[in-house]
Write a structure and sequence with these properties.
This protein is mainly α. The chain is about 60% helix and about 0% strand. The chain has three helices and no strands. The N and C termini lie far apart (about 85 Å).
Length: about 100
């Protein structure tokens, strides 16, 4: 009986893992086996972690209204869905 429970638990775990991988993954093609893509898969979590643990808190510090003049921080507008560098027209066009 004990062996049956162990086998059932192993099948449940293995089957659940297979279903979770199959449900969330996109189709595989050869571009995902490129050595630089494989390196990027390994490096990306490091960069993501550094962004959230270093650069975002640092920006929060230098963007404080009292400290912004000391660090030379200038606030920027949020452009929404517009690409970076795209100017938003705030006044009506005049000829």
């Amino acid at each position: 009986m004990r062996k049956l429970i162990m086998v059932a638990a192993a099948v449940a775990l293995f089957g659940g893992a297979q279903l979770s991988f199959a449900a969330g993954a996109d189709d595989y093609d050869d571009s995902q086996s490129h050595p630089l893509r494989l390196a990027a898969y390994l490096i990306h979590p490091v960069g993501y972690t550094l962004e959230w643990l270093v650069t975002r808190p640092f920006h929060e510090l230098v963007a404080q209204p009292d400290l912004a003049p000391v660090f030379g921080h200038t606030s920027h507008e949020y452009y929404g869905d517009a690409p970076v560098g795209t100017a938003i027209q705030t006044e009506p066009y005049r000829e």
